[in-house]
Amino acid sequence: xxxxxxxxxxxxxGASSIYLGSDGKWHGRVTVGVKANGEPDRRxxxx
Length: 47
Fold this sequence. Notes:
three-stranded antiparallel beta sheet
């Protein structure tokens, strides 16, 4: 039986990730929409 491949999709608006970076700071990223050129608009903050 052939294995079915999962179709990759983009994260929806509002999708986020939070992680501790190698620099010792916490990083947060969130998708807030799409830029005029079609790329996802991802915002980043570090503390």
